Amino acid sequence: MAINYRAFSTSAFYEDLGIFRLIQLIQHDQGTAHFIEDYLSPLISYDKEYGTELLLTLAKYFELDRSKKLTAHKLHVVRQTLYHRLEKIKKILDFDFDMPENRLNVEIALKAYQLKQQVGVPAK
Questions:
Q1: PucR C-terminal helix-turn-helix domain: which residues (predicted)?
Q2: 8 A C-beta contact, residue 16 and residue 9
Q3: Count of alpha carbons within 13 Å of 77, Cβ hemisphere only?
């Protein structure tokens, strides 16, 4: 199964993919699906039920190094809307994703989810 690594890295070299090298190796592992489910399923379900894009908001927030100003700009919303969304996300996930360990787990789950979506592997 071919993966478009350009979606995750500007480099054409496999060695430059970082965490995606590990995620790619375990993408079909059931444990990966459970990991994604543990950290993201409430948010994925909420987005589906209410037609929101909170998962996208969170992904963009982490992608932009948690810069609220840049995230709001990229999402074309005012900062107050972004603050509201981030608080909603924390409430839905029921933990503070700004704490280092939680943040790492959520970021890895997001990357694994994105990779699974790209290759068409459903993440429960």
A1: 54-112
A2: yes
A3: 17
Q: What is the DSSP letter of 15?
A: G
pLDDT digits (tens, 9 = 90+) for 25-49: 665 666 778 888 999 999 999 999 9
Could you report the per-residue pLDDT of 67-76, keeping only the tens digit for each? 999 999 999 9
> How do the domains of the chain map onto residue ranges?
17-118
Measured from the Cβ of residue 119, the count of other Cβ atoms closer than 10 Å reads 14
Average pLDDT score over the chain: 82
Asked if the 17-118 domain carries CATH number 1.10.10.2840, the reply is yes
CA distance 109 to 59: 10
The answer to whether the CB of 71 falls within 8 A of the CB of 60 is yes
